[in-house]
Amino acid sequence: MKIVEEKVLSYLDSKRDEIIDFLGKLVRIPSVVGEELEAQKFMYNVFRDMGLEVEMWEPDVDVLRRHPAFFETTSFKKYGYRNRPNVIGRFRGEGGGNSLFLCGHIDVVSPEPINAWSYPPWSGIVVDGKMYGRGAADQKGGIASMTYALKSILDLGIKLKGNVLIGTTIEEEDGGIGGALAVVLKGYRADAAILTEPGGSRIGVASAGVLYFRVKVMGRTAHASRAHLGVNAIEKACTVYRALMELNRERQKRIRYEYAENEAPHMKGRATTINVGVIKGGDWPSTVAGWTELECRIGWPPGESISDVKREVETTIMEASKEDSWLRDHPPKIEWFGWSAEPSEQDVNHPIVKLVKGTAEEVLGERVVFAGGSAGLDTRHFILYGGIPAITFGPEGENTHGIDEYVNLDSVIKTSKVLALTLLRWCGVT
Amino acid sequence: MKIVEEKVLSYLDSKRDEIIDFLGKLVRIPSVVGEELEAQKFMYNVFRDMGLEVEMWEPDVDVLRRHPAFFETTSFKKYGYRNRPNVIGRFRGEGGGNSLFLCGHIDVVSPEPINAWSYPPWSGIVVDGKMYGRGAADQKGGIASMTYALKSILDLGIKLKGNVLIGTTIEEEDGGIGGALAVVLKGYRADAAILTEPGGSRIGVASAGVLYFRVKVMGRTAHASRAHLGVNAIEKACTVYRALMELNRERQKRIRYEYAENEAPHMKGRATTINVGVIKGGDWPSTVAGWTELECRIGWPPGESISDVKREVETTIMEASKEDSWLRDHPPKIEWFGWSAEPSEQDVNHPIVKLVKGTAEEVLGERVVFAGGSAGLDTRHFILYGGIPAITFGPEGENTHGIDEYVNLDSVIKTSKVLALTLLRWCGVT
Predict the structure, then answer these.
(1) Three-state SS for B367?
(2) One domain for residues A175 and A215
(3) Dist CA A272 CA A260 (whole Å)
(4) Whether residue B139 has a cis bond before it, omega within 30° of 0
(5) Do the Cβ atoms of A227 and A235 come closer than 8 Å?
(6) Whether A199 contacts A392, CB under 8 Å
(7) Is B289–A267 a contact, with Cβ atoms under 8 angstroms apart?
(8) pLDDT beneath 70, residues of chain A
């Protein structure tokens, strides 16, 4: 290891308390998707105080709408894009090096039910080397790591050759349309991007395809005392449910994907999933349910396109309907709504992947594996629509999206070290 | 037939246009359950103009709550009982005769979806001898018949021996707690009651037991990409649905009831029914549904008590849960809510039943049958809680609670004749 690298690592060790303090402040600014403004103002000031050129701008939905990956996100429908800026800091290198984009999403999912938490979700309390709070792991820990990776280099006066972009974006949890996609469409480019999603000793090299769909099943109403004259749409929805679960089992056998199965031992054979998350039907206990709707998500690893998957789901529901005398004549309607993400995969032979893997193994002292492909991530916007090689790498945490989310603070520091070394090695030093 | 009877019948024939005009006015006053005030003011004036002593009063919920048959009706929860009066007119006879209570409910169910109607539901338009409109059959037609039955006798100066009560009550469609039950608890009594629900050539002699219940099924949430770590409450609700339908089939084989099966040819073997009318579950397409609720109605003919039926439903759900490894440890919760009606049956050998049957067959010129027991009616309040023998008899109509409800106008006049003759024969004439 070079002397400059060792200086950066020991500088980061010396800044441990400051980094934890920074992360605590960020966790204590609630930034549930749609309400990202205060946290983004905070990040704007942080990047500005680091001496970066900083741009803070709201997404232009008219530009986004023209892009094939556009969909109206839930938070866009609720809030629009006013007061929901992205923040991008720019460091101009000395020239002659590779450029790198460090990026994290500022939005977090709802902490509800808050009463179920052991510690208040906006407290950022530290217990046994873990910081608890909504977003601590997903992914304000990663934002702290990347911010201090660059800051340590700047503080020490080390001159990078390549340019660096460092940004925090909105609504990743909703699909990143107004966040990462807007960033890419605004023209920000680099030779590679690292998104600091939580991962620990896993490098994320794939993003899942994701679709939401709604199945509307019609029945025929009748008074409950004459239920035999009606057709209960709840019963018919159970038929559709079974058909979707049968497809799920068949797909899980057929579609295997190493990186998704690497995510955890229990992910074996679970690279693709169909989930029926919401059901609503009928109007009154004494009326035969005349309608029922199912809201579903299908996720799948790279290998199938959105249109492949839509066709398979539609065919399955139509085939199941043919076997039911009522559904045959009253086929369910399928609506694709909300999340609509093509899967993407980063070639693991790309130099940035090899560099991060080697650097991470060096710092963490353990084997680092490639993972990903069960969840939709912002990496797809960089890869598919920006032509920017992109991976995820970030600190280790647990209970993301759940109760008592926490990030391991040692891991935050180690991640910062990996990212700092990556900056030095990728961008080069004069 | 006596001369006085013939006079009344021909008087009613001469009043046909006036009766139809009266019914049209009443249909044109919307009186969806909960919003009965304007129609009740109209009836108050009608009864007053007939020279009756009229009382118009709002139900006292504190009195009602102390009664074992009380439950909070849907419209009570929404509106309370302010501005929802019952109207009772009293005619004092000369003495020495039987007393009769003629009663109809003024409330109607919602006409939605209004756009589906061939004629506006509050128009009371007459086409081919039928008056169309929400409530035309259920049961403003019956109110017109009973009003003119008494009015014709009074107009002709005929002196009845027995007392007559004539009333219009609220919220029968919601269970009649603030209507018929409140009337009975206020102390109105007669030797018999005729409720003018639609029926044509059927005399209603039974009211169904009715219970609403909610089954809450818990699952375990998980992100959709890790659905295998969760337990989908929608799937478990389908299991409960199947168990309830299995119980329904078994009960329909076991429980036969002639009067309910008399209601229509298709009612054979359908005297009892279980309906799952509403389903709601889960929060988000990408989260495994952590909960699902079913809202159900069970109706049954006289023969079982409320507690018998509750026990059978609860046992069925618990037995089905034992066969499921998740439900065994997380048994569904069952809540009994809303409608809670004991079944009741009127002895068909009672003189009022024989009298109405004979009179109806005489006027209609066809065989009149006994029916009832698939729907909960206000008769139960009179029989069970007032000790008043009670039946339903009213004009013939179709599409009650549905689109294009209508009443047959010939039948309105004939019903008025049957009721007028019944008054003369039951109360006696000086």
Answers:
(1) coil
(2) no
(3) 9
(4) yes
(5) no
(6) yes
(7) no
(8) none
CA A9 – CA A12 distance, rounded (Å): 5
CATH number (domain holding residue B298)? 3.30.70.360
Closest-approach residue (CA) in chain B for A213: B285
Residue range A198-230, pLDDT digits in tens: 999 999 999 999 999 999 999 998 889 999 999
Q: Considering only CB atoms, which chain B residues are within 8 Å of A299?
A: 224-225
A363 touches chain B (CB under 8 A): no
CA atoms within 13 A on the CB side of B203: 28
Q: Are residues A297 and A389 in the same domain?
A: no
Instruction: Clarify whether residues A336 and A405 are in a common domain.
Output: no
| Residue-wise pLDDT tens digits, B309-353 | 999 999 999 999 999 999 999 999 999 999 999 999 999 999 999
Q: How many CB pairs under 8 A join A and B?
A: 153
Neighbouring-strand partners of residue B143 = none
For the stretch B287-306, pLDDT in tens is 999 999 999 999 999 999 99
Predicted confidence at residue A428, as pLDDT, reads: 98
Q: At what angle do helices B409-427 and B141-155 cross, to 10 degrees?
A: 50
Kindly report the CATH number assigned to the domain that includes residue B388.
Answer: 3.40.630.10
pLDDT digits (tens, 9 = 90+) for A252-273: 999 999 999 999 999 999 999 9
Tokens linked to B226: 């890790």
Q: Look at residues B341, B370, B393 and tell me which one is the last residue of a structural domain.
A: B341
What's the longest Cα–Cα distance across chain B?
85
Question: Does B316 lie in the same domain as B386?
Answer: no
Residues from chain A that touch B266, judged by Cβ atoms under 8 A, are 226, 228-229
The torsion defined by the Cα of B372, B377, B379 and B381, in degrees rounded to 10, comes to 140
Write the pLDDT tens digit of every residue in A300-323: 999 999 999 999 999 999 999 999
Residues A300, A377, single domain; the answer is no
The answer on B299 and B372 residing in a single domain is no
Buried/exposed code over A96-134 (b: 16+ C-beta within 10 A; e: otherwise):
ebbbbbbbbbbbbbebeeeeebeeebbbbbbeeebbbbb
- Does B26 lie in the same domain as B133? yes
Range of the domain at B219: 209-341
Q: How far apart are CA B152 and CA B145, in angstroms?
A: 11
Residue A185 shares a structural domain with residue A234: no
- Of A341, A359, A386, the last residue of a domain is A341
Q: Is A72 on the interface with B (CB under 8 A)?
A: no
Nearest to B286 among A224, A277, A292 (CB): A277
Q: How many domains, in total, are found in chain A?
A: 2
Angle between helix axes A37-49 and A16-27 (nearest 10 degrees) is 150
Q: Which two tokens stand for residue A220?
A: 């025929």
To the nearest whole Å, the CA of B398 is away from the closest chain A CA by 13
Q: What was the pLDDT predicted at B249?
A: 98
The answer to whether B293 touches B279, Cβ cutoff 8 Å, is yes
Whether residue A135 contacts residue A405, with contact meaning beta carbons closer than 8 Å, is answered with yes
